[in-house]
Write a structure and sequence with these properties.
about 0% helix, six-stranded antiparallel β-barrel, mainly beta
């Protein structure tokens, strides 16, 4: 889909609202998270820990599995993550 000034927009995958408990893990992080919405390509999460854009973490969702994800944005206890593996 294109806009008049030739900027390209990519539609993101449809998101589903959820409430899933889990953990975010890395060499420097081990914190509780709650997944607030999820799609095939990523999710929005909430945590008491502050994330940084560009950070790579393993998201472990209780009774659901694990996936590597890159934090794309973060603000006020929330973050958006893009699944990378």
């Amino acid at each position: 889909m294109e806009q008049g000034d030739n900027q390209m927009f990519v539609e993101r995958a449809e998101r589903r609202p959820v409430r899933l408990a889990g953990f975010a893990l890395s060499a420097t992080r081990d914190c509780d998270i709650e997944i607030a919405d999820i799609s095939y390509s990523g999710c929005k999460l909430a945590s008491d820990d502050a994330f940084e854009a560009g950070e790579v973490v393993e998201l472990r969702i209780l009774k659901r599995g694990a996936s590597q994800a890159e934090i794309r944005w973060c603000s006020d206890g929330r973050a958006g993550a893009l699944f990378i593996a």
